[in-house]
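Before going further, learn to read the protein records used in this course. The integers have meaning only within a learned vocabulary of local backbone shapes. The record below shows the convention in full.
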Amino acid sequence: MKYHQIERNLFIKNRAKFMAEMKPKSVAIFNSNDIYPISADSSMPFEQHRDIFYLSGVDQEESILLLFPDAPYEEQREILFLKETNDHIAVWEGEKLTKERALAVTGIKNVHWLQDFDKILNEMMTYADTMYINTNEHYRAAVETETREARFVKKWKEKYPAHAVAKSNPILQRIRSIKESEEIDLIQQACNITEKGFRRILSFVKPNVMEYEIEAEFIHEFIRNRSKGFAYTPIIGSGNSANVLHYIENNQQCKAGDLILMDVGAEYANYSSDMTRTIPVSGKFSDRQKAVYNAVLKVKNEATKMLVPGTLWKQYHIEVGKLMTSELLGLGLIDKADVQNENPEWPAYKKYFMHGTSHHMGLDTHDYGLLIEPMQANMVFTVEPGIYIPAEGFGIRLEDDVVIQEKGEPSNLMRNIPIEVDEIESLMQS
């Protein structure tokens, strides 16, 4: 891995939190992701399943974590299974975790090779009443591929039909949403790498540059700072392309006078950052662009102040809608009649700001978190309002990542990334 090794105490704490929520005499199992094929003998780069990484720090394929807090013997309460490494694998694929190295990474003392898994699982199941299956229940999930985890769950339930079944996901949704200090430091590192990429861009962008050239500058800076690259597919949208919310072609020329909306974030150690900035191709905003930009910035700043313990996500978005309505009235994009006659299911402001303002962030860009429950300290959220005006040929979105505090306003992990109009213009023209 490119990143520095994470202190194993983080994963020890994470396992303890999960096991504290398990039912008596229950077993939980977590699998690594597959390496997904493309065609012929090529495959996608490996991406670890975030749940097994969160609980163990293991970042390689064909790994299995078994947790059984009520096992008869202490050494059976945490068991890690790994693909057995050898000299041939080391030559062709690079070194895999040894049992000794796995202990250093995870803090798990009982490590076995995968060929022992079925035998050991069978013994554990004779002591257990309940099995925790790890299904993907994220509110934005749309999974069409059968994952390694899904295949295992099917097999596990068929082999042990007399056991009760419980779900790991509700526990993970809660514990993963509240970050440990080590996790916040890792997200901060991802944000710092994103900052370096953005500052590089400010001195690079000129009229006629291609969107993909900007993308290339970001990835250059990310990788040279120990990131694998983008935390998600980057959006580099100039001109009217900024009004396509998930524009990812990044293949147009950036023309003088236009704006460029860049929704880009670096990952670090599997943790995400999620930044959006909008900058002028020519290095200076027009008066109209500046007015809309400052309206978006005002909504972002005011919305950020609302992210405090006890806030409900649904009500928060209603309040942000009121802020945006006020700004759109000031810009002349809507009038009082539009507001008075609006459909409550699709308020007038939605014509220019049609997406949500905030989502959980962490190991996943759209991270775990139960949106029906009040916000808590040490949750990390994005704040990302926007105004999109196809008729005027530009769209503006601004986005930072913030940590909810016990008291007061959130801590902004992107506080050092330029966002004010004067600072952006000054850096682009220097």
Remarks:
- The two ends are 37 Å apart (CA to CA).
- The chain has a mean pLDDT of 96.
- The longest strand covers residues 26-31.
